[in-house]
Amino acid sequence: MVSRRSHQKSRTGCAQCKKRRIKCDELRPACSNCVKHSVTCDFQTGSPSSASPAHPPKLLKQVSSLKSPGSSRSSVRSRPVISNGLDPGELQMGDLELLHQFVTSTCYTTSNRSESHDLWRITVPKQGFHHDFLMRGILAIAAHHLSHLRPDRAADYQNIAHSHQDKALSTFQTAIANMNETNCHAFFALSSLIVVYAFASPRKPGTLALTDDSQDSPGEASWLPMIRGVNSILQQVWPWVESGPLRGLLQPGVINTMDIRLPKPATHQLKELAGLCETAEGGEEAVAAYRDAVRALQKCYAKIFTRAAVECEVGTAFTWPVEVPDKFIQLLNARAPEALVILAHYCVVLHHLDDYWWMKGWAEHVMGNIYKELNGSWREWIQWPSDTISQNERCLVWRPLSPDMIPSQTPVSMTSS
Predict the structure, then answer these.
(1) Angle formed by the axes of helices 93-104 and 132-149, to 10°?
(2) Would you say 134 and 142 are in contact if contact means Cβ atoms under 8 Å apart?
(3) Dihedral class, residue 361 (left if φ above 0, else alpha if ψ from -120 to 50, else beta)
(4) Smallest Cα–Cα separation from 270: which of 124, 89, 396, 105?
(5) What are phi and psi of 221, to 5 degrees?
(6) pLDDT tens across 282-325, in order?
(7) Which pLDDT belongs to residue 233?
(8) What is the torsional sign of CA 170, 175, 180, 181?
(9) What contacts 187, CB < 8 A, 6 or more positions away?
């Protein structure tokens, strides 16, 4: 009679094996059972089986609290990912998968400019090898991209993305007090990725995601003030970035947009908005803020309409959030109907970015929630942008500039990618 071979129970196996009640061989970075069934292993993500899923950080609070260069004498430095003496320890196969995803696919989805693709594919990861906050930002975006491409494993990849981004922002916030000519390029790259991450994060129904206050859901990325906050940081180091290895990501300078003839529907709507500003409530300061916001919107429409092939449409679209005055942001936070109507017309610009996986559906999401915020006759003011988005129209059709109209490169707010 053959006796049964004894074996030891595994008490430190991965969660997947425990759930399926099978023996885990505890191989790293992923056990054999998880590899066989193509599921994410706890060992691969570096998380213990009892750990709770990571939650997305409050990105607005992280960005708004960033300090300007030289404001602190702290000696904290960003830690290199790879030291001079290579650690022969275990490979993190999950992270290698994410890096491979970024350099073979994700890097091509941050911009429509072919000139920037190699910079995101080669130069930015090279910077990441010396600054772990940037490398984690790269891995976070790649994880979000995989969650989009592999919906059956979306929750796993989103948790990995949140974990990497949380650590990236923690280091980023500490190290920015020592931003200088050498490391500013890594800050510049991560700043751009932070905005992509904010839009790539899952949206919650019923929120505009404009502010980090009680009116929006806790933990949801607040995209509009984030773009403004990141831009304020970049402006302080722009001369260094302009002459550095990532200068190819900068947006060329702008042309005079005031004399450009827009399509008739857009021109008509801008005139209507200008009239609305003059009768707005809130006093002269509010009226002035609305005027400036509409002027900035007109410039943004014109830039999209006449965008040259050398310009990034993402960067062009993001000029409006950084050009509106602070007072207008306050009016948006207060849900002033005039401010919401102007924002609704900006959604037409966001809709031009709907082909990017991380922007997909954002214009419709914001527009739908603006509609809920407004009532009565105010909803008539957003009929045109609402119809434009719902009918999937690209009313600001791109018309190429002649070579002599292409401007020289000059500092422009938050127009990277």
Answers:
(1) 80
(2) no
(3) left
(4) 396
(5) -65, 135
(6) 899 999 999 999 999 999 988 887 765 545 678 888 889 999 99
(7) 75
(8) negative
(9) 172, 176, 179, 233, 237
